[in-house]
Amino acid sequence: MEEFLSKILEKHKDKIVKVKEIVPWRVIFEVPNGKLKELAKDVFETHGFRLSTISTLDQGFYFELLYHFVKDKYILTLKTVISKENPRIPSLTDIIPGANWLEREVRDLFGIEFEGHVEPERIVLPPDWTLEPPLRKPIAPKLPPTYAEYLVNLTSKAALASITGIVKRRRTKMGLPEVVAPVLESKKVIEEIRKISKELEIDRKAPVGK
Amino acid sequence: MMLKYIFYPGCYISTMLPHVEAAIRFILKKFNIETIELEDLSCCPPKINSIADELFWLTVAVRNLAIAESKGLDILTPCNGCFESFFEARMMYMEGKDLREKVSNILSKLGYKFEGKIKPKHLIEVLYEDVGLEKIKENIVKSLNGLRVAVHYGCHLFVVEHGEDVWKKPKMTDELIKITGAELVKDELERLCCGFVPSTVDDVFSLTYRTEVRLKSVKELGVDALVTPCPQCLMRLEFGQVRLRAKARYDVPIIHLAELLALALGLDPKKFGFTVYHKSPTKLILQKIGLG
């Protein structure tokens, strides 16, 4: 990490819970929701960074908010996590006027409330928008890749386990039936499970629940 | 009383543990437990699928229950995971009006209806409650006296009806082990997860903080075997030892409860691949009881 950024880290090490260095001049400091404003104030006022943009990731059960601060070649991102049940965070608009439109955009698209915002109006959505925030996903966990793949296989193969030729031969040798439900590949079962999947609109590529 | 059930071995026993299935079928035949097998049944599916889509999991599980109910028979399963899936699906379906309506609507389009008249039963319950310890004891031909074993119940064995003792089936497991003549030794870690399900999220964490913790504790007990009624626990604890070999050798024989009972009830271990298909040194068990 470049010395300039290390000094900021040293000064605020009581607030920062995690550090990620992308390249020496590009780092991410993860801070709790309640500590972010104080750190952002120092970064902006004392160290001369400007707030470039705020990006938001909907991770199912929670949001990740990333405040990207830029100065010369340095990019310092302050990252925090807020729950989806209570998506609120203090607004930066009283200390960083440039946060105005950025926060309003996040509010429109994700439904996160920036407490104390100086101008809490719609900015990207029409004023009469009454539907859910358009980029907000259902409250559901982000499935780890291995598990998501398993679930896609489960639904696409109609909830049947496959059985290899070797296993069939082993079973026969032991005096067992060659196949037994649920490893018997019945066309009827496959068809019915697929009908259930279709009825419930299970997306094979994105098995996140409703 | 004639005992008759729908036999549902589950995916893991059928595909990965045919030696366990052979032991189970031997036991069922020994006690004249009649079973039928239905081609229309699908994967249970595992309860953990409900994290991704609760309604899908519930609908598929209740579909299986509806098919069983159409035959008027309870489902007998030796798999902890399948048992939990059917048990909790039945409970949620019967107790949740909204969910029941949604599931019923979908299943009715396929011609199925479930009224809660049948139940899933674990092999442990069938042996303990329906067959009875006395009858099992009468049929023991090979006492496993001298064999010291530990037990790993498996997380999904602890599902019970509201108000019931969560230790109900684990206690049955203990009695079934003891009736063979084997000595049951405990290390107070019987409740620990084997790491099978957490391994889908973080395999290294699961291996280090679950699987190996249990293996280490059981090794220190100095037992001849670890017995489990759960096929996933069996595979995790066996394969876990293989994967940890570079770090430490545990060499703990791991067997299914059905295999322990089958040995005591007289099944020839050679006939069901007792030492061939296991990944742990199960021949040590045979040597200890004079069959190896």
Notable characteristics:
heterodimer, A: 210 residues, alpha/beta, two-stranded parallel sheet, 6 helices, elongated, disordered C terminus, B: 292 residues, Glutathione S-transferase Yfyf (Class Pi), Chain A, domain 2, Rossmann fold, 2 domains, 4-stranded parallel sheet, 12 helices, 47% helix
Short description:
The complex is a heterodimer of chains A (210) and B (292). Chain A is α/β, with parallel strands linked by helices and 210 residues long.
Q: In what range is the share of β-strand residues of chain B?
A: 5-15%
Helix content of chain A: 25-40%
Q: If helices are DSSP runs of H or I spanning 4 or more residues, what is the number of helices of chain A?
A: 6
Q: Please state the average pLDDT score of chain B.
A: 93
Provide the helix percentage of chain B.
40-55%
Shape of chain A: elongated
**Average pLDDT score of chain A:** 84
Please report the total strand number of chain A as a whole number.
Answer: 7
Q: Name the biggest interface.
A: A-B, 46 and 41 residues
Strand adjacency order, main sheet of chain B: 2-1-3-4
Shape of chain B: globular
Question: Pairing-aware structural class of the strands and helices of chain A?
Answer: alpha/beta
What does this structure look like?
- The complex is a heterodimer of chains A (210) and B (292).
- Chain A has 210 residues and is of the alpha/beta class.
- Chain A has helices at residues 3-11, 36-45, 99-110, 145-156, 165-173, 187-199, and strands at residues 18-23, 26-30, 50-58, 62-71, 74-83, 88-90, 113-115.
- The longest helix of chain A is centred in the last third of the chain and has 13 residues, at 187-199.
- Residues 204-210 of chain A have low confidence and may be disordered.
- Chain B has helices spanning 11-16, 18-30, 54-70, 80-95, 97-109, 123-131, 133-138, 168-178, 203-221, 231-243, 257-264, 283-288, and strands spanning 3-7, 33-36, 75-77, 120-122, 148-151, 183-184, 225-228, 254-256.
- With 292 residues, chain B is an alpha/beta fold.
- Chain B has two domains: 3-122, Glutathione S-transferase Yfyf (Class Pi), Chain A, domain 2, CATH 1.20.1050.140; 142-288, Rossmann fold.
- Chains A and B meet through helix 4, helix 5 and helix 6 of A and helix 1, helix 2 and helix 3 of B.
